[in-house]
Amino acid sequence: MTVDQLPMVVPAQDLPARVRIHEVGARDGLQNEKSTVPTEVKAEFIRRLADAGLTTIEATSFVHPKWVPQLADAEELFPQVSDLQVALPVLVPNQRGLDRALALGARRIAVFASATESFAKANLNRSLDESLAVFDPVVRGAKDKGVHVRGYVSMCFGDPWEGAVPIHQVVRVCKALVDMGCDELSLGDTIGVATPGHVLELLSVLNEEGVPTNVVGVHFHDTYGQALANTYAALEHGVTTIDASAGGLGGCPYAKSATGNLATEDLVWMLQGLGIETGVDLGRLTETSVWMAERLGRPSPSRTVRALSHKDQ
Ligand code: HMG
Ligand code: MG
After folding, report:
1. How would residue 2 be classed by pLDDT, with cut points 50, 70 and 90?
2. Do 123 and 154 meet the contact criterion of CB atoms below 8 Å apart?
3. DSSP label at 83?
4. pLDDT value at position 306?
5. What pLDDT digit, counting tens, does each position of 147-158 carry?
């Protein structure tokens, strides 16, 4: 698709020159889909995302297949895309998951912790501290093999069972993951309740507590339409790793009210307008999301995908 409508480039002061988009469409985007997406379609989706210029594409999860049936084909899928010259992180919840990922040659993994007890229980069937104890040898074992480790922290801004989440609770989990050896963190707004001031406050407290901004990524869901505003706040703070999902697909099966992630196209549109480099071709990416939406049988929720693809008709 040739995109004839692009934002005018007007840089804002003191923002990063370049951002790395951590694309989660194939994992976070699909994990909640009710009907099974064929493995070949997932592989094609990942190939198209790489072709659109995305350099970090979360491919799948080595979790218990009963917990996330949509990703039960991780063993079939991963070898179909592992030749791609892009980073392909995969989620692992425990040693079993790490063993499965390493057996296929994965070089990047992500463990996923929670800032709240309720979500640790719902998502991992463990208390918060039990889940950290499970991650500790997993992270250390991965690092020993030179594998890059991302540590997600879910429910950083609010939790559907517990409501507001105190910042010190989030910081404790972030520090525990950094101490284990995680190379980067991703601050998850799992249910999309964050607002920009809250984002800035958490990032500042993390810095005060010794967690530098260069190890922090942000992961916004767009439930309340705040994902781009929150992203802008994170950029102002100096964050250069932004998670997003092609076409705005997504949700978490273990968190009621988790809707789609920040759409990668909406993010790229804003970053292009700000003159921030991403390496992503917006036309190819939009084409990919339109193609995926056809496979899923419903239009993409991304405003940018809708605007650009309507212009094409
Ligand atoms: P459990 O039932 O407590 O597991 O589940 P267990 O340790 O008691 O083991 C029970 C059985 O499962 C055993 O088999 C294990 O071998 C097997 P048995 O001996 O009975 O035959 N098993 C496994 N099999 C395959 N792969 C594995 C595995 N582990 C154990 N990895 C468990 C605990 C962690 C496994 C389960 O809770 C789980 O898989 N949870 C995953 C949930 C999930 O994937 N959620 C979505 C991702 S998180 C997210 O979306 C948020 C994020 O986007 C950020 C944000 O938005 O906030 C990242
Ligand atoms: Mg998520």
Report:
1. confident
2. yes
3. T
4. 93
5. 999 999 999 999
**Ligand 1 neighbour 148 (Cβ under 6 A):** no
Domains of the chain: 3-311 (3.20.20.70)
Q: Are 65 and 36 in contact (CB under 8 A)?
A: no
Collapsing DSSP to helix, strand or coil, 90 comes out as strand
Return d(Cα 24, Cα 244) in angstroms, integer.
6
Q: Mean pLDDT across the chain, nearest whole number?
A: 95
For residue 303, the one-letter residue type is R
What gap in Å lies between CA 200 and CA 263, rounded to an integer?
21
Catalytic residue among 156, 174, 182, 252: 252
Give the pLDDT confidence score for residue 259 in this predicted structure: 72
Measured from the Cα of 110, ligand 1's closest atom is 58
**Is the Cβ atom of 28 under 6 angstroms away from ligand 1?**
yes
Average pLDDT over residues 70-90: 98
**295 Cβ contact list (under 8 Å, min separation 6):** 37, 41
- pTM of the entire predicted model: 0.97
Q: Which pLDDT band, with edges at 50, 70 and 90, does 85 fall under? A: very high
Ligand 1 atom with least separation from CA of 114: 57
Cβ(180)–Cβ(140) under 8 Å?
Answer: yes
Say if residues 24 and 250 touch (Cβ distance below 8 Å): yes
Reply yes or no on whether the pLDDT at 313 is more than 50: no
Round to whole Å and give the CA distance between 204 and 211.
9
**Which residues, by Cβ under 5 Å, contact ligand 2, an ion?**
28
By DSSP bridging, strand 216-220 and strand 108-114 are unpaired
Residue 155 CA: which ligand 1 atom is closest?
57
* pLDDT of 252 over the 80 cut: no
174 is catalytic: no
Share of the chain above pLDDT 70, in %: 96
Q: Tell me the C-alpha distance between 247 and 288, whole Å.
A: 8
Give the SS3 label for residue 1.
Answer: coil
